[in-house]
TrEMBL record:
<comment type="pathway">
    <text>Steroid hormone biosynthesis; dafachronic acid biosynthesis.</text>
</comment>
<dbReference type="InterPro" id="IPR045605">
    <property type="entry name" value="KshA-like_C"/>
</dbReference>
<dbReference type="GO" id="GO:0005737">
    <property type="term" value="C:cytoplasm"/>
</dbReference>
<feature type="domain" description="Rieske">
    <location>
        <begin position="62"/>
        <end position="165"/>
    </location>
</feature>
<protein>
    <recommendedName>
        <fullName>cholesterol 7-desaturase</fullName>
        <ecNumber>1.14.19.21</ecNumber>
    </recommendedName>
</protein>
<keyword id="KW-0411">Iron-sulfur</keyword>
<dbReference type="GO" id="GO:0046872">
    <property type="term" value="F:metal ion binding"/>
</dbReference>
<dbReference type="GO" id="GO:0008203">
    <property type="term" value="P:cholesterol metabolic process"/>
</dbReference>
<keyword id="KW-0001">2Fe-2S</keyword>
<keyword id="KW-0472">Membrane</keyword>
<dbReference type="GO" id="GO:0051537">
    <property type="term" value="F:2 iron, 2 sulfur cluster binding"/>
</dbReference>
<dbReference type="GO" id="GO:0170056">
    <property type="term" value="F:cholesterol 7-desaturase [NAD(P)H] activity"/>
</dbReference>
<dbReference type="InterPro" id="IPR050584">
    <property type="entry name" value="Cholesterol_7-desaturase"/>
</dbReference>
<dbReference type="Pfam" id="PF00355">
    <property type="entry name" value="Rieske"/>
</dbReference>
<keyword id="KW-0479">Metal-binding</keyword>
<keyword id="KW-0560">Oxidoreductase</keyword>
<keyword id="KW-0812">Transmembrane</keyword>
């Protein structure tokens, strides 16, 4: 019978963390510096079968940059979602996003362009385009600016120090957007670090892991720290319990089956959300449990996730963004926030999350998408997830083959 340590749990947690910290050097787990691995994964992915894929660019808000990466008066070029974006920040701090290519002669305004007030100036001939509506505001050598001189604008928002763009294949206006966490906005929680991965898979498969509870024991059950696993794996493992995934509609029904009209409307407005809960424990000698961590996850749209983690020492959060850089190339970032005094412990949990995530990446990089998977009744959440995720596709959502053609000269 497994016993959960109570009175000594916090002391054991701290002791284990200190031992782990002695044997594991914390480092920046960003993509830079491991380009050989990225290239190897990319080349290997070319050999696999793809399967019959859903559309490759779903509708929703997607992260392009982190707020700290774009200062006032700066412009950055970001290629994602089959588009080329010129993301710039005006001198008053407002973020604007335009199509990167100048409609005059096709210069990339994000490469060498200059921010002038609310406008972005093309480096080729000095044409200036307003960030608010894309209209050309000034041509230095022309007496009159043609009314048709304009470029495409993209809706943007900033939340949790992340810059998002709204993408919709039918060009519909957004009816929801990511919200800023109060702990982040009032700065009671501080930025503690981030990581970045490039993954060769379809975007839908990344979030599908949340609904796939059976993979937790198989992939994430063995002890995480491989450098010392040869010593500890014989008597330690990770336990994942209280696992539940549900879309917003089911979530509301489970709370109150007798909903009012306003609640029904709220359900419609929040149908882009899904929820997951799980509990982690480290099991020692199949008898004791330590390092309990309760995780509440919100999937907000197709490419953004908030993970709230509650431990005996305090709470923290990780913001996960998933952005399609190419049809089958996802950039995934994790950004950690925690109370300042919890920083050492939060950093260790973040390292553990990174190492766990790498196990998923190894599978995503080599698997094919199964449109009609062979499932058992215990896999019912996967089908529920796919039905929920289908809302982010529409009539003109690009297929894999059409998206690939748009990338070729």
């Amino acid at each position: 019978m497994i016993k959960q340590l109570t009175g000594a749990n916090r002391a054991i947690t701290v002791t284990l963390c200190l031992q782990m910290r002695r044997q594991i050097s914390l480092c920046d787990l960003r993509l830079e510096g491991d380009n050989k691995t990225v290239l190897a994964n990319h080349l290997e992915s070319k050999k696999r079968k793809l399967g019959k894929l859903p559309p490759v660019y779903p509708n929703g808000w997607f992260a392009l940059l982190e707020s700290s990466q774009l200062g006032k008066g700066q412009v950055k070029h970001v290629a994602a979602l089959g588009q080329n974006f010129a993301v710039f920040r005006t001198n008053n701090g407002t973020v604007r996003i335009l199509d990167a290519y100048c409609p005059h002669l096709g210069a990339n305004m994000a490469e060498g362009g200059r921010v002038k007030g609310d406008c972005l100036e093309c480096p080729f001939h000095g044409w200036q385009f307003r960030g608010s509506d894309g209209q050309c505001d000034y041509i230095p050598y022309a007496d009159k600016v043609p009314h048709v001189a304009r470029t495409k604008t993209w809706k943007s928002c900033e939340a949790n120090e992340i810059i998002f763009v709204w993408y919709h294949a039918e060009e519909l206006e957004p009816h929801w957007q990511p919200q800023t966490n109060s702990h982040v906005s009032n700065r009671t929680w501080r930025y503690q670090g981030r990581n970045e991965f490039l993954i060769n898979c379809h975007i839908q498969e990344v979030a599908e892991n949340g609904a796939d509870s059976a993979h937790l024991s198989a992939v994430h059950g063995p002890l995480i720290f491989t450098k010392i696993a040869h010593f500890f794996s014989a008597f330690a493992r990770h336990s994942w319990t209280n696992v539940n995934w549900t879309p917003h509609k089911s979530f509301l029904e489970s709370l109150n089956s007798k909903r009012t009209e306003s609640e029904r409307q709220d359900n419609e407005n929040l149908r882009h959300r899904a929820y997951m809960t799980l509990r982690h424990r480290l099991v020692l000698f199949e008898r004791f449990e330590v390092l309990q961590l309760d995780v509440n996850v919100q999937q907000i749209g197709p490419g953004y996730v908030e993970l709230m983690m509650h431990s005996s020492l305090g709470s923290m959060c990780i913001f996960q963004t998933v952005t399609p850089m190419e049809p089958l190339l996802q950039k995934v970032t994790h950004i950690l926030y925690s109370p300042p005094l919890l920083a050492p412990y939060a950093s260790l949990l973040f390292l553990a999350e990174c190492l766990m995530f790498e196990r998923d990446v190894a599978i995503w990089n080599r698997k094919k998408f199964e449109k009609r998977p062979l499932l058992v009744k215990e896999d019912k959440s996967i089908l529920a997830y796919r039905r929920w995720y289908a809302q982010f596709y529409s009539q003109h959502s690009p297929s894999y083959h059409s998206a690939i053609k748009s990338l070729q000269w």
